[in-house]
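Entry:
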Amino acid sequence: MKMVDMCVMICEMGFKGVQTYIQSGNVVFVASNGHSAHLANRISRQIEKTFGNDVPMIICTSPELSNIRDNMFFEEKGRWKRYITFLSHQPDQAQQNKMEEQSSNVETFRVGEEVVYAQVNKQTDEKPLFSGSFVQKQLDIPATNRNLRSVNKILALASPTE
């Protein structure tokens, strides 16, 4: 589905200030009320009705997203890339341990509150396990990845005064 069509749909649902960030499913909008899980379910149902796609939705408020970014476990490290995988719910302790045990000399994983932080060396000959669906497959939890640059751009859209 095209993000312009998604934007129109979200506007038609009554949300204000609707903006999208690249063709990646990132939508920023103002919701006057509603719990994130309720909004996610409502929008997901509307996407299925409008476009015929069953899309899991993860919604963060601007303060939640800012907190997640600020709690990035890893410091900047040369040419390594930092990612945040947003989870639909918190994994149990066994899943968290399994995820963190996937760490190696080319990638490191740390589980936070409904997120997994990853730092990946993209400049090595050794191929990292991390990919767009790696965390989701490891945890068997609906999830979506964003690199730290994208998270910062989304926050800038959500908080233009920052």
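Residues 82 and 149 are 9 Å apart (CA to CA).
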